[in-house]
Each structure stands twice: as structure tokens, then as C-alpha cells.
Amino acid sequence: MCNMSSSNHARCVDATSFIPAEPARTVRVDRPYLLLVRHADTGAIFFLAQVAKP
């Protein structure tokens, strides 16, 4: 959304970009594992899970 005033003329552009996803990969996990999701910049842990019997 743009604010237009008499002293300032602007053009507004609203665009949506679409990036196609890569084809799905099949991953077979046949042993217990930990799943950890961390913030790339701060290293803060967002999610932690343990899968004991996959």
C-alpha cells in the first residue's frame, strides 16, 4: 500500500515471486535419531525431538 501526497508522487508495485520446489526425496531412517531445528544466526534451538522407534 502506498501513501500519495501532492508533494510526493510514487509508483506502487505489488509482486509475488514463486520459486519451484525441488522434487521430493525419499529418506529411509531405520534407527533411532534426534531431530534439532536451530536458528541460523543465533543458534537458538526452536525444536528438539527424539525418535526412538522409527
Structure description:
The protein has 54 residues and is mainly beta. It has a domain at 29-54. The protein is 0% helix and 24% strand. It contains no helices and two strands. A two-stranded antiparallel sheet has the order 1-2. It is flat and about 45 Å long. It starts with 32 loop residues before the first strand and ends with a strand. The model has no long low-confidence stretch (mean pLDDT 78).
Count every helix, treating DSSP H or I runs of 4 or more residues as helices.
0
Order of helices and strands: EE
Strand adjacency order, main sheet? 1-2
> Strand count, sense and closure of the main sheet?
2 strands, antiparallel
Any idea what the radius of gyration is?
A: 23 Å
The strand count comes to 2
Low-confidence stretches: none
- Through-space gap between termini: 49 Å
Concise overview:
The chain has 54 residues and is mostly beta strands. It has strands at 33-38, 45-51. The chain has a domain at 29-54.
Give the topology.
Elements: E1 33-38, E2 45-51
Antiparallel strand pairs: 1-2
What descriptors fit this protein?
24% strand; two-stranded antiparallel ribbon; 54 residues
